[in-house]
Amino acid sequence: MSTYITLNHIQIQNANCVNGLTFGFPAITHFLGYVHALSRKLEQSHSITLGGAAVACHQHQIHAYQPKGFGEYIFALTRNPLTKGGKTAPIIEEGKMHLTVSLVIECKGLISGGEEGIKALQKHLRQLCLTQKLAGGVINSIRNIVIESANSDTEKATLTQKIRRRLLPGFLLLDRSQYLEKHLADLQEINPKAEMLDAWLDFSTLKFEAEASLEEGEELSEKTKTTWKYIPKPESGYLVPITTGYRAISKAYKAGEIAGARDPNVPLFFVEAAYGLGEWQSPHRLQNIEDALWNYHDEEGWYLCTNQTTIDTYTAEHEDDNFDFID
Amino acid sequence: MFGFFETKIKKSALFKIKEKVDKKQQDVEKSPEKDRAKKEEELKLLQLALKEQRQASLTSEIPDYLTECAEKAKSVDKPMLQVTHPVKFTHGLIPYGGIYVKPSSQNTKSYLTTETLQSSYYDITNSNGNLITHARFLMLNLDGETVYNKLINTDDSWLSEFSKKKEQVKQWTEGLRLWVAETEDIQDTSRLKQNYFLLSDGSYHITAPLFSSSICQAVYDKVRFSTFSQENKKLRTARKNKKYAEGILVEYPNFAVMNFGGTQPQNISTGNFERHGEVFLLPCSPPHWQSNLKPPIKRISLYEDEFDRRAWRIAKELQLYLSKLQERKGNMEIRNHVTQLVYQIIDTLLGYVAEIHSLEEQAGWSETDCKLKESHKLFLDLHRQDENFQLYRESGEWQKEVCKDFGLWLNKKLESKTMVFAKIESSHWAKLLKRQLREFERDIKRAKEVTV
């Protein structure tokens, strides 16, 4: 049996919207961190734990503006208390945003008490979820909390349909970091010196190329009639650069090896942001809720959040959706 | 070396002349034909003066600077450190230091990390922001290697260019080398962010994230090139004027700028100073449509106006793709690709429709004064409180026309001088929508069944 808890339309105020060199949405680590904190509490109170989570965004408002009316954005800064001399204190810039998201969370363990137990848990969650901060921001409200289960694959498919409908209008965040490796390989075929940075940036840039329409016998010049064509990104979908976790950049520091460590019982590592790719996809195409769940994934030297979507984007969902154009 | 003095040391004689040369250069470019010859003469004179000053500085201000720099190192007893991740980006009050990550191709994955950078760029961090000019000197690249690296690798050959005397070179070497040191481990994590990370075995590690000045610099360079380089500007202008130009125009839409260090960027790191405290950020937010969306009351078809605007780019992409196909009869990959693009258009459509559906407060908008086709009304005005309306909606008959209209709309979008589409294509597009629309409507029905 698979059970999912949906926290529907969570309104968050003043969430962190800058992570590493990206801005506009909190890092996925924030959402998994929130879920994990909930999980620890539920383990104590209800003997259940939480697993992976799907993240959908319904609405967002970044506190940034374009001072020139076009071009680059800068962040609207908060007023900090004045220093002793009555001057504005040096500000550490932060990026903030308001947003509304939904989380669909895997629930592990049995919820005791049948129907009544589920209702009670829903009520409990209503209170509990509001008390924790999410992505550094305060939760203003949650529209509702739904707990649903599926006992078979068919039931899971039906459940997915219910859930995805609830998430519209909105966009699910899916992991597409694997595109980077592929795109880098493609780039290197043309230019062996291409590096991962080039591959990553290709998903953030808009590129255009001129196409000349030459008249009979005309020679190419600056006067030639030209249209500028948009060069599509390496893969389809609304793709964005995201921070998907961390890469260790130091050895482990154990208890006592370094001053100021938060917890002497836990090894500390210096890390840096690991940048991957995400896709914002409309929920109505989701066939299986599992495909949208993000989980922690660790390996030696890597602290990541991953999503097991293995959607092969070059296959049509139904065979007869393919079409042969006839000349 | 000359470049360093000409652009970074304001009180240098070289700097002053270079400034004049640059100004004159701009003057020449802006002046009308008739004045140009005279200005070019003046420019030539200035360039000659610069050349002469360079010769002079070789034996005067440059060796003087080296001596001063070497002496200064003795009085400041703290070395400067080369780091890829200066700690001060995380908190200005942390004692200077950081981590130095070398390029590596081991254990990499499908992510961008500092070790994957090919350039061996590193930043310099030091104990006092006032030492910024000395720090910039150490970052100076001479023939592919920075002064810092030359010193740390005990390579002194570059110094002999500025003095014939072995004694002098030795003095410089000893002094200058005091600036450099192997990067030490970070001693204190008090002001750093420390987060617990859950591992698969249920235990935790604490992760203390640091900012990569290296990746920052790499992105900074690319964005600046796109925004300010003559090369890209030329392409941008050509595109604006619809003129031909060779090359690919690269734009970074909607990037943001964040500042580190306020009015004293050198307090964070040397690299930060060189970047004027600026960090460029790339957007990662979801698609953002208008927040004041209204139902298409004034249109006859839902495919006009707002939806058309949203779907325009993907439709154009599909049009381009089809126009480039050598043979229309495609292989599996081509057929799949076309289907994928149409799915994306359908995604956009259903996303748009869902947004209209969510305007519950406006339910019933299709009743009065609405030009929309009946079948389109039935599709969009989901919450209209009208028994008859809802019965018709339930029957699903309207779906056929909605799909047909989609097919016709898409055909029209794809048509060009070289491509014509007919019923066979529009029917196919309609069929693609039909299936997704059925599921979409079924979801709506199911959602009504959920008791929440």
Summarize the structure.
The complex is a heterodimer of chains A (327) and B (452). Chain A is an alpha+beta fold and 327 residues long.
Strand residue percentage of chain A: 35-45%
Taking the alpha carbons of the first and last residues of chain B, their distance comes to: 72 Å
Label the overall shape of chain A. Answer: globular
Helix tally of chain A equals 5
Count the E strands of chain B: 11
Q: What is the rounded distance between the termini of chain A?
A: 52 Å
H/E series of chain A, N to C? Answer: EEEHEEEEHEHEHHEEEEEE
- State the share of residues found in helices of chain A, binned by percent: 10-25%
Q: Order of strands in the sheet with the most strands of chain A? A: 8-1-7-4-9-13-12-15-14
Shape of chain B: elongated
Number of strands of chain A: 15
What's the Cα radius of gyration of chain B?
33 Å
For the largest interface, the chains and their residue counts are: A-B, 129 and 128 residues
Number of helices of chain B: 16
Order of helices and strands of chain B: HHHHEEEEHEEHHEEHHEEHEHHHHHH
Largest sheet of chain B: 2 strands, antiparallel
